[in-house]
Amino acid sequence: MKTKVKAILITVLGFILSMAVSAQKGVDTQTEKIKDEATRSSSRETDAVRSFDWGKGKTKLRQRLPNPYRLAGRRDAIIESVKELIRERGMIMDEASSRPSDGLIITQPYIFAKGPVMAQSELTRYAILNFGDNSYSRGRYTLIIEVQSIDGVQNNVSVNAKVEGKSGSGLGSEWINLQSSGLAEDDFLKLLVEKVTGQSLDPVQDTDKSNQR
User: Fold this and answer.
1) Number of continuous H segments (helices) and E segments (strands) in the chain
2) Dihedral (C-alpha) 49, 54, 56, 60: value to the nearest 10 degrees?
3) Is the pTM of this model over 0.85?
4) Percentages of the chain per state (helix, strand, coil), in multiples of 5
5) For an engineered disulfide with 113, which of 43, 119, 174, 204 has Cβ 3.0 to 4.6 Å away?
6) Residue of 47, 46, 106, 103 whose CA lies nearest to 79
7) What is the DSSP string of 150-175?
């Protein structure tokens, strides 16, 4: 009798142990599945590490010209080109201050921006503003152009700008001198060089030849 009971107990115990092992294997299988999913997920490319190909059509920017700029040609012809360009730009030469025979040409102040919004935006481009300079209602600049002969064929052409912003409004407004960013000088010098040489200084942009027929 005791032997039979002992056999039954051994059988029941074996069954319980086998069930526990099977359950443990199930847990392990599920755990491995989760680990695999996590591994696959972490190995995918993310926006932080993915490299993007923006193509070859990026806009090329022109670097600013050296100032003074060495320009070939007759000095008197270059001076005439300066006068023509001033008129074409809607500016006026200051006859009293200029000395064309000495290669010095000075313009009258040219207003390039009116109104608080436009003045602030344009002055940010043409001048270096200090923090808090945001109360300008107008912007203007005066150009000083000098053409100095080197050897009768080569000339140094320099352009300097006096940039001013009109601060305040009404009776309390005044023109304040600002540090030029160099943009006004470079714009005028570029147009002058193109006018004298007949060649554009703008960089050649990339084109997608596959779309050309």
Assistant:
1) 4, 7
2) -100
3) no
4) 40, 25, 35
5) 119
6) 103
7) SSSSEEEEEEEEEEEEEESSGGG-EE
SS3 (DSSP) at 68? coil
Which tokens belong to 75? 């000095």
Alpha-carbon distance values, 49 to 9, 39, 43 (Å): 62, 17, 11
pLDDT at 184: 97
* 66 touches 157 (CB < 8 A): no
What is the rounded CA–CA span in Å between residue 166 and residue 175? 4
Asked if the model's pLDDT at residue 86 lies above 60, the reply is: yes
* Contact (CB, 8 A) for 141 and 161: yes
Identify the pLDDT of residue 62: 80
Q: How far apart are CA 78 and CA 158, in angstroms?
A: 12
Residue type, 45: E
Average pLDDT over residues 171-193: 93
Q: Which of 114-138 are b and which e, b meaning 16 or more Cβ less than 10 Å from the residue's Cβ? A: eeeeebbebbeebbebeeebeebbb
Q: What is the pLDDT of residues 16-48, one digit of tens each?
A: 655 544 444 444 444 444 344 433 433 333 333
